[in-house]
Amino acid sequence: MENRRGIILAGGTGSRLHPSTISVSKQLMPVFDKPMIYYPLCTLMSAGMREILVITTPRDQDAFRNLLGDGSLLGISITYAVQAKPKGIAQALVIGEDEGFLDGHQSALVLGDNLFFGDEFDDQLLETNKPHVGATVFGYHVKNPKDYGVLGFDDDGRVTSIEEKPDNPQSNFAVTGLYFYDEHAPTYARTVRPSGRQELEITALNQAYLDRGELRVETLGTGTTWLDTGTHRSLLQASNFVGIIEERQGRRICCPEEVAWRKGWIDDAGFARAAEPVAKSNYGRYLLSLLD
Q1: 269: part of which helix (H) or strand (E)?
Q2: Which one has a higher pLDDT value, 20 or 245?
Q3: Separation of alpha carbons 285 and 265, rounded Å
Q4: Which of 8, 37, 104, 148 has the most C-beta neighbours closer than 10 Å?
Q5: In this structure, are residues 74 and 266 in contact, taking their beta carbons and an 8 Å threshold?
Q6: Phi/psi at 209 (nearest 5 deg)?
Q7: Strands 135-141 and 173-181: what pairing?
Q8: Which residue has the higher pLDDT, 234 or 292?
């Protein structure tokens, strides 16, 4: 499999979650039984990515390092970079290049407050991670498309437009916070004109790919759940969803230690070492039970 590199954008001020996020990054807040960032981390790991860059605010980087370390316990490599000010999602690709992380590789960018879950989704991730020209975004059917970037399609199902929070949406398919790019993404991101709020908008970067005829869309089916945990209500909904799934199915979702173990990146002994720091919690006891 091509060595695509993953980026988690965990910056921003989390202003929609104030006052809860005045002193802590929203991506460190719990979604039921684990920190929010575990979910996008597992998304990249499930796709097969073992080299991951976490972009944080200057204030929060030490906290992320304390939580995730260098990734060696998971058989992966985690490095860190800073987004000094929230200047847009597409800036993450520029940072990744400037830090020498991308180094000409294809990439996947995921927002730190996005949660994906579904067995079919894992298969889509593995397929999308194969080398390809252009960009791939994931479309998800929503009832309130005006709140999102929205995709438009022609009669043959080909994507024809991508608009940010349109007054007259062309479809009910929103663009999720997960994007796969070829090696040209940082170069294209540098050519994006800053928006009125002086940000490099991800929609503008995706539009650049669409203009070149190189934007693909993977639609997520009803067997896949996508949640954006950026508001108090959506954070509560996500926590309730995870709690219900885990209680009814008797398994936990988006545990990076388990993902690494099942992929063979760590052996049984390594899995036990990864679980040991959290062994006294229900989360840790679940991990150790898998070895039994």
Answers
A1: helix 268-275
A2: 245
A3: 21
A4: 8
A5: yes
A6: -70, -40
A7: antiparallel
A8: 234
Q: How far apart are alpha carbons 51 and 103 in whole angstroms?
A: 12
As given in the structure block, the two tokens for residue 17 are 């979650």
Contact between residue 125 and residue 218 where contact means Cβ atoms under 8 Å apart? no
pLDDT higher than threshold 50 for residue 1: no
Backbone angles phi, psi at 155, to 5 degrees: -65, -20
Which residue pairs, CB below 8 angstroms and at least 24 apart, start in 261-264?
261/290, 263/45, 263/48, 263/75
Strand 149-153 versus strand 114-117 pairing type: unpaired
Q: Taking a C-beta distance cutoff of 8 angstroms, is the pair 208, 200 a contact? A: no
Amino acid identity, residue 105? H
- Distance between CA atoms of residues 254 and 36, nearest Å: 10
Residue 13: how many CB atoms within 10 A of its CB? Answer: 15
- What is the bridge-based pairing of β-strands 149-153 and 77-82? unpaired
Q: Residue 281 in contact with residue 257, Cβ under 8 Å?
A: no
Beta carbons of 220 and 124 less than 8 angstroms apart: yes
What is the spatial distance between Cα 20 and Cα 23, in angstroms, rounded to a whole number?
Answer: 7
Q: pLDDT grade, residue 2 (50/70/90)? A: low
* Contact indicator for 94, 190 with CB cutoff of 8 Å: yes
Residue located via tokens 């995921």: 110
Burial of 282 (0-12, 13-18, 19+ CB in 10 A): exposed
Residue 274 corresponds to which amino acid? Answer: A
Map residue 103 onto helix, strand or coil. coil
CA distance 94 to 26: 23
The span from the CA of 107 to the CA of 109, in Å, is: 7
